[in-house]
Protein: tRNA-2-methylthio-N(6)-dimethylallyladenosine synthase
Amino acid sequence: MKPASKTAPRTFAVKSFGCQMNVYDGDRMSELMSAQGLTATDPDQADLIVLNTCHIRERATEKVYSDIGRIRKHAMARHGKNPMIAIAGCVAQAEGEEIVRRAKVDVVVGPQAYHNLPELIAKAARGESALDTGMPVEMKFGHLPARRRVPPSAFLTVQEGCDKFCTYCVVPYTRGAEVSRPWAHIVDEAKALVDAGAKEITLLGQNVNAWEGEDGSGASGGLDGLIRALDRIEGLKRIRYTTSHPNDMREGLIRAHAEVEKLMPFLHLPVQAGSDRILKAMNRSHTRDSYLRLLDRVRAARPDIALSGDFIVGFPGETEADFAETLSLVDSVAYAQAFSFKYSPRPGTPAADMAGQIPAEVMDERLQRLQAALNRDQEAFNAATVGRTCALLLERKGKLPGQLIGKSPWLQSVHLVSDAVVGDLVEVEIVSAGANSVAGVERVPVAA
Ligand code: SAH
Ligand code: SF4
Ligand code: F3S
Structure:
């Protein structure tokens, strides 16, 4: 059926779900539409709503469909007409036409094609079908407008896609093969971010530490070389990167943690499970022992580094003994923070057809035990920082008068009462700790 034509939208809202790369993409779509003369507004009032979706677990996907229904209902109640709906992100890539059939949306655009959004919106307004899930050879970034308004802590995507094919994961299918953005483009974008007010840049990629490219002199290098180049940008105070794969964690990057002062002492290095049998079935291609030895090297380079990870419980075939190995790995690492998920079978992935799928109650119970251990370690990490003095980058206002919230070097949320403003870096002493955040008081640095 041919969709009915709609008037061209004048206002828009973007809602992003999923990982930080989606947040980055959402911001870039907003910039693109603003550059086309559309005005950003709240989702309740917008003529065009872009849902920038995530496909990683079943719940994330179902949420998209329930959101579409809710948006339409609200819009009808508010102004009696249906907004134009565009589905972007990984659900768009994975489901394609299926979303148009199931939810009658106006535009479907994949994560590598959103530079074509203006053209797709125009097509939809003419009542034409508007679907683009292509993975062009030339990357979208060159077709996007320059960065203008950015927060103190900004994201910068440097690498996309994944060639690892963990047996549970949709990312290699939704984001495509591993591609690194060219060095010069990244350095230019980083400078533009700093000129627009960013003090901290987090380099993003599905496997960010697999980034490779040639520097200005033609020498090829890895993420550590790029980090060292960004280190030279005046005005940039802090550098972070996420997410890394254990197999791409090379010596140069570990050394950068010892040598580059702007590189923050934090590493998100997902392990997923503690049993070699399960790691093998997951196709992780690292072992429990190689992961632990890697962390020893990272800690030797940067003793105060805060470690973070991702875990999946209830992967097909996971026995109580396998799960006990995940708990013992957690005990030996003592993560500063971590994310943990119940295994979710994803259509088209090898694990979805494996024997030994784990019942929901068993997964629930394992997840509770794992999260109790991770929460215990997070609280202990926070408590151990009490008494430390560190720089804090203020990112937003808190709920109380005069309250500001910022991030410590170890990525803790720090609450502070101060006359400083968002975007300032202030010297604080951490004075008390909770499970999810800590409190600081400002210390006036002694003048040199
Ligand atoms: N590239 C990153 C992570 C991408 S997805 C990496 O390899 O570390 C983020 C996290 O979602 C994964 O680390 C994993 O813990 C979780 N995840 C991915 N697929 C999943 C699935 N099918 N079920 C449950 N959790 C999943
Ligand atoms: Fe998914 Fe594995 Fe690739 Fe991470 S490394 S994105 S978990 S396939
Ligand atoms: Fe989700 Fe796609 Fe990111 S599936 S986690 S939005 S790469």
Summary: The chain has a mean pLDDT of 94. The longest helix spans residues 360-385. The two ends are 72 Å apart (CA to CA). Residues 99 and 174 are 15 Å apart (CA to CA).
